[in-house]
C-alpha cells in the first residue's frame, strides 16, 4: 500500500469521478485508475461502484475514515521533515568528555546559541565509550570524545579528528615524583593511581599502557570528575595520568605538580580527541552547522592552548 494510492482513493471519493480526481492530483486518469486498482487488489475488495459517478462500496465506506486519518498524519510527517531539512530543529543534544565540556565547549555553545537562538542545546558530560553508545542509540546528535576505533569504525559513523592531546602525570607538590622533569612508565610503577571509571577512554589508555610495558597497574580508586582528581591527589602519595586540557587548573595550583611523561621512544604519551556524528544526522542543517563550528573553533582554541601547559616554575 502506497500513500499515492490512498490519495487517489480520497480524490475519487471527493470529486465523484476518476477524471476529476486526476485533475486534482495532477496526474493522468489512467494513473488514478491504476492506483485505485492496486489498492483494491491489496485490500481484496472493490472500493467504488464504477457508474457515471463513482460511489463507494461497503468496503470503500469502511476504508474512508481511516484513509483520511492516514493522509492527515502523512501531511504532518511531511511538514516535520520539511522543517527538519530547513534547519527548524527545536533542540540539539550533545555528549562530550568532561575536559571538553569544561574548557572548549562553553564559548562554542555561546556562539551557536547566538547564531541559532531557536535551537535549545542539551549538553551532557559523559565518558567516551558511554557517549558513543548514546550516539549510536540515537539519544544524542553529536559526540566529542576520545577516539575508540572499535566503536567508531562503522559505516554509519562520521568521524573528524580534532586534536592529539598530551597526557601528563598529576602529583602532589611534595610527592617523590614532583621533582622530575620527565617521567618514564617504569618510574610510575609501585605508586597507587587514581583513574577514571569504567566507560571512560582514559581508563583504557592507562590500563593498556601498563599492560603493553609488562607492568602491574596499582589502582587505589576510580573517579569521574576533575575536581575530585585534584582533591584526592593533593592529599598525598596518589598519582593520576590526565590529559593536558584537564590540567589547566592544576598547573596554577601551588599544592599540585604536573610532570611530563615519555614513552620508550622518547615521544610523549597522547590521546586522540574526535568529533563524531552519524552520516544521516550530518544531512540536517542544524547538526551540520554545529558540527562544523565545533571543528573550526576547537582547532583554534587547542592551538592556542598548546605550549601553554607544563611544569610550574
Highlighted features:
313 residues; alpha/beta; Arc Repressor Mutant, subunit A; D-Maltodextrin-Binding Protein, domain 2; 2 domains; 8-stranded mixed beta sheet
What do these coordinates show?
The structure is a single chain. This protein is an alpha/beta fold and 313 residues long. It folds into 2 domains: 83 residues, Arc Repressor Mutant, subunit A, CATH 1.10.10.10; 219 residues, D-Maltodextrin-Binding Protein, domain 2. The protein has 11 helices and 12 strands. Strands 3, 4, 5, 6, 7, 10, 11 and 12 form an 8-stranded mixed β-sheet that branches. Helix 1 packs across helix 2, helix 1 packs across helix 4 and helix 5 crosses helix 11. The chain is elongated, with a radius of gyration of 30 Å. The termini are far apart. The C terminus is likely disordered.
Layout of helices and strands:
Elements: H1 3-15, H2 18-25, H3 29-43, E1 48-49, E2 55-56, H4 58-85, E3 91-96, H5 98-115, E4 120-125, H6 128-136, E5 142-146, H7 149-152, E6 157-172, E7 182-183, H8 185-188, E8 193-196, H9 201-212, E9 219-223, H10 226-233, E10 240-243, E11 256-261, E12 270-278, H11 285-305
Parallel strand pairs: 3-4, 3-5, 7-11, 8-9
Antiparallel strand pairs: 1-2, 5-12, 6-10, 6-11, 6-12
Helix pairs in contact: 1-2, 1-3, 1-4, 2-3, 5-11
Amino acid at each position: 500500500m502506497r500513500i499515492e494510492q490512498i490519495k487517489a482513493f480520497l480524490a475519487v471519493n471527493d470529486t465523484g469521478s476518476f477524471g476529476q480526481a486526476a485533475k486534482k492530483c495532477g496526474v493522468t486518469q489512467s494513473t488514478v485508475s491504476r492506483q485505485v486498482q492496486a489498492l483494491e487488489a491489496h485490500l481484496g475488495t472493490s472500493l467504488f461502484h464504477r457508474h457515471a459517478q463513482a460511489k463507494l462500496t461497503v468496503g470503500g465506506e469502511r476504508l474512508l475514515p481511516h484513509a483520511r486519518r492516514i493522509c492527515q498524519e502523512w501531511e504532518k510527517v511531511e511538514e516535520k521533515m520539511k522543517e527538519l531539512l530547513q534547519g527548524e530543529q527545536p533542540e540539539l543534544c550533545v555528549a562530550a568528555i568532561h575536559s571538553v565540556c569544561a574548557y572548549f565547549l562553553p564559548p562554542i555553545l555561546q556562539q551557536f546559541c547566538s547564531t541559532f537562538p531557536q535551537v535549545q542545546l542539551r549538553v551532557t558530560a559523559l565518558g567516551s565509550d558511554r557517549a558513543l553508545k548514546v550516539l549510536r542509540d540515537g539519544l544524542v546528535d553529536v559526540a566529542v570524545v576520545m577516539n575508540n576505533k572499535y566503536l567508531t569504525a562503522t559505516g554509519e559513523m562520521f568521524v573528524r579528528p580534532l586534536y592529539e592531546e598530551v597526557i601528563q602525570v598529576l602529583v602532589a607538590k611534595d610527592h617523590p615524583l614532583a621533582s622530575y622533569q620527565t617521567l618514564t612508565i617504569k618510574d610510575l610503577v609501585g605508586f597507587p593511581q587514581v583513574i577514571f571509571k569504567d566507560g571512560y577512554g582514559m581508563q583504557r589508555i592507562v590500563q593498556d599502557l601498563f599492560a603493553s610495558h609488562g607492568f602491574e597497574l596499582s589502582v587505589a580508586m576510580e573517579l569521574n570528575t576533575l575536581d575530585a582528581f585534584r582533591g584526592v591527589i593533593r592529599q598525598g602519595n596518589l598519582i593520576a595520568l590526565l590529559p593536558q586540557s584537564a590540567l589547566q587548573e592544576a598547573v596554577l595550583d601551588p599544592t599540585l605538580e604536573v610532570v611530563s611523561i615519555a614513552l620508550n621512544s622518547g615521544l610523549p604519551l597522547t590521546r586522540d580527541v574526535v568529533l563524531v556524528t552519524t552520516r544521516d544526522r550530518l544531512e540536517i542543517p542544524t547538526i551540520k552547522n554545529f558540527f562544523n563550528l565545533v571543528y573550526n573553533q576547537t582547532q583554534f582554541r587547542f592551538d592556542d592552548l598548546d605550549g601553554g601547559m607544563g611544569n610550574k616554575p
